[in-house]
Amino acid sequence: MTVLDKMTALDAPSAPAAEPAGPPPVRVKTFGLEGRSTAPISLVTAAVLLGLWWLAADLRLVSSLFLPHPAEVFHQFLVVARDGYAGAPLADHIGASLFRIGLAAALAIVTGIPLGLLMGLNRWAKGILDTPIEFYWPLPPLSYLPLMIIWLGIGETSKVTLLFLAMFAPICLAAQAGVRSLPVERTQAARALGATRVQLFRHIVLPSALPEILTGIRIALGVGWGTLVAAELIASTRGIGFLIMSAAQFLATDVVFVGIAIISVCAFAFAYAVRLAERVLVPWRGKG
Hints:
The protein is mostly helical. The protein has a single domain (74-281), classed as MetI-like fold, CATH 1.10.3720.10. The protein has eleven helices and no strands. It has helices spanning 3-11, 39-58, 70-83, 90-121, 123-136, 141-152, 156-180, 184-192, 197-231, 240-249, 253-281. It is globular.
């Protein structure tokens, strides 16, 4: 019998023992949340917010300079999609932003997950890496944006680096937290059954930390999209952030809303992709 077979047998439920007489066991209330989708509630909430926006614009409660009508925003989206903006098609603006976010996210995942796992497993790694991460992580990206320009210039490197730094810390800290939350009893049981270090990491540590890692990726992507406008302040001629800032200079509020809507849709698509990955990689999450 292999080590994995022994561990599976250890986790398998044994025959139920006779319950002692006494009061019935207390069941934890889950408030009926398990197995129920929140999508209908979210759709209704979005419809209500859109209706309030439409009503406020129709009643002229706010000047159109500050709050354009939803129909005007949609019309402006069609105009920008047809004619482009600032000398570039809308597809080029979206593609430039997706390239920057995608490259920075890939670099943050490739470096953040291994370093976070190492920090959770090794106190020397935690002691060395924890200080610089905790030092820069609370800083807003705009505070070290000038340093990116001075050190790396105004090309794509400074933009991608700024996004990378914004997304690296949440992923790294989430991976570390996932390892730290691993019950000691599980690792001790695996060692007692003769598991090697590789088997212990592959079958115990990594699956236990994976839910936290995926949550960290979702948070990091949200932070990355929030930092996009700051990153594209660096001498950009393409990108959704550039589109928003350029439109704001000319008080084109409807174009600003178009850019915000595009960022929201892209961010939602990225977050939904991570949720799908959670269903595939950690199907047991939320069912314990």
